[in-house]
Amino acid sequence: MKAGIDADTWHLTTSRLEIISDRKARIALRTVLVAVLVSLAGLAGLGLYTDAAGPAARATALQQQNASLNAEVAMLRAELELERATRTALEQQVMELNAQASELASQLNFFNAQSGRPRAGRSRE
Length: 125
Known about the structure:
Layout: H1 2-14, H2 23-115
């Protein structure tokens, strides 16, 4: 029995080590590897496209907002100019009315002085 066991194991120890490659498995592994690499490249490209489109959309939105704000600034400047012109006109009118009031007060004082009445602005005691 010992000789039979030695004969069985002798063949295992004396034979060369051979790595058996399965050609079909290698082709399938290469195909999967290529598919994974193509998928990764596609995802990277999609990410780059999305990143490139993001700033462009943001730039467009900012340009629209800038145009809107410029229109609002132009409107507010026009309102400010109108208010300044109105204020200047009103100040001029106030000055004219004050001058007219002073002239009327002077004429009233003169008239009162001619008729013997006390002057306006002085209290009777």
